[in-house]
Design a protein that fits this description.
The complex is a heterodimer. Chain A has twelve helices and no strands. Chain A is mainly α. Chain A has two domains: 101 residues, Alpha-helical ferredoxin (Fumarate Reductase Iron-sulfur Protein, Chain B, domain 2, Orthogonal Bundle), CATH 1.10.1060.10; 82 residues, no CATH class. In chain A, α2 crosses α8. Chain B has two domains: 116 residues, Up-down Bundle (Glutathione S-transferase Yfyf (Class Pi), Chain A, domain 2); 152 residues, Rossmann fold, CATH 3.40.50.11810. Chain B has 15 helices and eight strands. In chain B, the strands form two sheets. Chain B has a four-stranded parallel beta sheet with strand order 2-1-3-4, sandwiched between helices. Chain B has a four-stranded parallel beta sheet with strand order 6-5-7-8, with helices on both faces.
Chain lengths: 195, 289
């Protein structure tokens, strides 16, 4: 375990970055465990939300950035709603996913991240979500080509819920693309800021 | 009553019955919806898990467009509602962040309009008394489990929904339609949302529990106000049965559909036939179709 006063973590001011991106003062957490008690995904997490808060306060970023739990979080906001210190653990999870991915931690290579990537690619391409493309693209990327294909897709098709020929279209797509690029630039600046 | 209408991506594709029933019921009860021109996706969960600037700018572009129309914004999708409320909240709190977001969006934004979920518009702006007057076919004897899900109610400081743990807005609406609301424990639990695609096992566990508890409390159907909740509870019910050996067969309705039935809109116009879990048996049993 590494502590904040030495090593790369201090140079890269990871703690400050987590706090900046999530807008949460980590040291306010008093470990009551209410976030983990309410979390619908806690049972399948390798470390629980309150343990993540504690590890962050101890400066053990490697464990936190590599854990499965940050990708198990569904962002249902139960923790944020119930936190007696009015902290926002759901936003901390977002910050951890962002930084874990940016720093190339192994834990960030998983199906949730693949889903996110394809979803945002759709939005960038069409300005809106193209659901058949999202599911199809995800199945290919995740190497689960037949997921939902035989049991769900035909029923949806015959009920009229699946219309692959119906591409979404917006006129100002260039405006949206410029917006996305600017957002990526701002986020990149925030992630790479040195002390 | 006029609103800038933001349907969201799902209502144009997999949740088309929600989109259709929303239009039908609003026309029936006198709410005028003007769709925001050229709206874009709100970014949903993938955006806020990837980039907080993007997660705020995407919905803010829609809000800025609604602001230009000079009307409050109404959103039927709980996820879009949550992201839009979050965007408004985030730029209110942080001036530096606000400047960057407005620069990225490239449209003027003042933050003067309100964002409401369709439930709030119907039950609060229009009011339950007005709804009662429009009900011509009360849903007598129908026991409804009202399912809010997560993003509609949480977190309260962002969504400003009446109560994060024990909301009553859907129950009150159900009673106004002449039906009974059952008391149950899982009404604000999460259904697993987009995990249906990226982590199906987790989604089935969470949705299975929600449906299981609703059935334990003797409901005839579950009423939802979110296309993702409907997708998981309705479309994935068979997959859950296959995985856990359960025999769930409970119809899932959007609140707009039940309200539409109560107000006498024909079922074909509400597109109820699109559901994957049979909705007609219970309607026939209660003599509603």
């Amino acid at each position: 375990m590494r502590f904040t006063k030495e090593g790369d973590n201090f140079k890269e001011n990871l703690r400050e970055k987590v706090e900046k991106i999530s807008n949460v003062n980590l040291s306010s957490c008093y470990q009551c465990g209410k976030c983990s008690a309410g979390c619908p995904m806690a049972e399948s997490m390798d470390i629980t939300p309150n343990q993540i808060m504690r590890l962050l306060n101890l400066g053990d970023f490697d464990t936190v950035f590599n854990c499965k739990a940050i990708w198990d979080c569904i962002s249902c906001e139960i923790c944020t709603t119930r936190c007696p210190r009015e902290l926002d653990p759901a936003a901390v999870m977002d910050a951890l996913r962002i930084l874990s991915k940016a720093k190339g931690y192994k834990g960030s290579r998983n199906s949730v991240e693949k889903f996110n990537k394809i979803f945002l690619y759709c939005v960038q391409m069409f300005g809106r979500l193209y659901e058949p493309g999202l599911v199809g693209g995800f199945n290919m990327y995740n190497v689960t080509p037949f997921k939902d294909v035989f049991d769900l897709a035909p029923a949806m098709f015959f009920k009229g819920k699946l219309k692959p020929w119906n591409f979404p279209h917006i006129e100002d797509i260039e405006e949206v693309k410029v917006m996305i690029e600017k957002c990526n630039k701002y986020a990149e600046e925030e992630r790479t800021q040195k002390k | 009553m006029k609103y800038a209408y933001f349907p969201g991506c799902s209502l144009h594709s997999t949740a088309l019955e929600y989109g259709e029933s929303t239009k039908e019921i609003c026309r029936k009860i006198g709410i005028e919806l003007q769709e925001i021109k050229d709206w874009n996706c709100c970014g949903a969960t993938p955006a806020h898990q990837t980039n907080r600037y993007l997660a705020t700018a995407l919905p803010l572009r829609n809000i800025a467009k609604a602001e230009k129309m000079g009307m409050d914004m109404v959103i039927p999708c709980a996820a879009c509602f949550s992201r839009s409320k979050f965007a408004q909240y985030a730029v209110e709190k942080d001036d530096e962040f606000r400047k960057k977001i407005i620069d990225a969006v490239g449209l003027p934004y003042e933050g003067k309009i309100k964002i409401k979920h369709l439930l709030q518009v119907i039950a609060e702006d229009l009011g339950l008394e007005a709804i009662k007057k429009k009900v011509i076919k009360p849903l007598t004897g129908l026991n409804v489990a009202c399912y809010y899900g997560c993003l509609l109610v949480r977190p309260p400081e962002v969504t400003h929904f009446e109560d994060a743990e024990e909301p009553q807005i859907m129950e009150n609406l159900v009673k106004a339609m002449g039906a009974e609301a059952v008391d149950w424990a899982f009404k604000t639990e999460c259904c697993g949302a987009s995990f249906a695609i990226s982590n199906a096992e987790a989604m089935m566990r969470l949705t299975g529990r929600v449906i299981g508890d609703a059935i334990l409390n003797d409901c005839d159907c579950i009423m939802v106000a979110c296309p993702l909740c409907h997708a998981n509870l309705d479309m994935r019910q068979q997959q859950i049965n296959d995985a856990y050996g359960t025999n769930f067969n409970i119809p899932i309705f959007y609140f707009t559909e039940l309200l539409g039935i109560a107000c006498g809109i024909p079922l074909e116009e509400l597109k109820i036939g699109c559901h994957l879990t049979d909705p007609f048996t219970i309607l026939k049993a209660k003599q509603l179709c």
